[in-house]
Amino acid sequence: MQISISFLISTLIASLEAQKYMINCFYGSWASKTLKPQLLPQGINPNLCTHITYAFFELTGSGRVNRHEHEYATLAAFSKLKSNKGKPKLIAAIGGPSVKAEQFTAIAADEEARTQLVTSVAMLLRDYSFDGADLHWYFPGRRFHNEDKENFVTLLRDLKAELNENGFISGVTVSGEVEYAARWYNVSQISPNVDFINVMAYNYTSSIFPVFHAPLFGETSHVEASMNFWIAHGAPAGKLNLGVALIGRSFKIKILKPELRTTTSGPLEKTTMAPVKETTMAPVKKTTLAPNVTTTPFPRFNTFTQMCIRGKNKSAHYHYIPRVETAFMIEGNVLTGFENDQSLGAKMGFVKKHSLGGVMIWSLENEDFLGRCGLKFRILRLINTLLK
Ligand SMILES: *[C@@H]1O[C@H](CO)[C@@H](O)[C@H](O)[C@H]1NC(C)=O
Ligand SMILES: *[C@@H]1O[C@H](CO)[C@@H](O)[C@H](O)[C@H]1NC(C)=O
Ligand SMILES: *[C@@H]1O[C@H](CO)[C@@H](O)[C@H](O)[C@H]1NC(C)=O
Ligand SMILES: *[C@@H]1O[C@H](CO)[C@@H](O)[C@H](O)[C@H]1NC(C)=O
């Protein structure tokens, strides 16, 4: 009796806690090697993600998945993140920045290489208890091979056929840049040939003023435009994951609007990224995001933890622009855009409003995984709560 009651209660709790949105957390395997402090798979809290994606598996010229001996231990530890109830689901990201666009062009165009790719991906998934794969071709058409557009679809079709047949899911990760997507992604053909689509709605570089890397709204590249592109072209909203990057992106500012210097927003309170108050900053004009800000062209990237630690410095000032739902920090002449509670609240609201599939989180090693600024994985906890 005792057992069945506690079983009932735990089942009830489990069902109450069930997350209906996909929370697809990426794990950069370099976090187990070169990153300091390192993040091993054992250090990941698997309860905060419905899916965890291992990035990246590169490919040989003939299309086979590369396996490195030095990664076997990490992979074995990674596969243990899955409970005996099969949660979270584990995904293998295939491709990434180290696989040249030319290489994908050649593989996608060649039937034999495509077959080699899909069979070796299926074998990889079986060997390490993965539940699916996610194709990262950065990016079709990069070298203006017109045939990439169609071959991309063919490759996705072959991959999904092979993986679904073997009980695996098959997804894709795509650029968030709308102009690029309009030229190179055939949405109506891609959508039925994948189980999910991660849209990298961050790290925008095509803006005239690349100051904020992932504003939800605005005149330049922004998250709403990226997601709406896929929805408007017929992708089922339930397959779309909104990409959220837990990075701060910094630019040196040459000319700063006087309002930004004289704002009254103080340094970060306490030690967390707790809600940042709206600033008394003068309203941003409608036509441009930052008319009087010029930045150096090469951005610097910061992990969330670095941001949070630097935020304790009295000379760091936080700002929030509700109109574009973006947070940023000013330190001297450095401006860093980042996600805070408020911007994430707005983005998760967007996910719910449009009944998207969920979110893609880039990435676990950018989180505060040691709890140096408060709760461990505080941002992921927040995202889980916001998506309830
Ligand atoms: C997508 O592909 C289909 C089939 O090849 C084609 O008819 C259609 O015009 C393509 N659409 C775009 C936007 O490229
Ligand atoms: C952002 O884009 C730059 C190139 O502009 C690239 O080097 C970097 O890896 C990207 N970062 C993420 C998190 O995608
Ligand atoms: C920046 O704005 C100030 C006043 O807001 C103006 O005096 C100055 O000329 C502007 N600088 C540039 C480069 O537009
Ligand atoms: C605080 O910020 C100032 C100005 O940006 C910088 O010079 C100083 O080194 C920072 N202090 C710490 C402890 O990071």
UniProtKB/TrEMBL annotation:
Q: Which GO terms describe its molecular function?
A: chitin binding; chitinase activity
| Pfam name, any one | Glyco_hydro_18
**Key words of the record:** Signal
Task: Provide the GO biological process annotations.
Answer: carbohydrate metabolic process; chitin catabolic process
Look up the signal peptide feature and give its range: 1-18
Classification via PANTHER family: CHITINASE (PTHR11177), CHITINASE 12-RELATED (PTHR11177:SF317)
Q: What is this protein called?
A: GH18 domain-containing protein
Q: Which species is the source of this protein?
A: Stomoxys calcitrans (Stable fly)
- The gene designation is 106083218
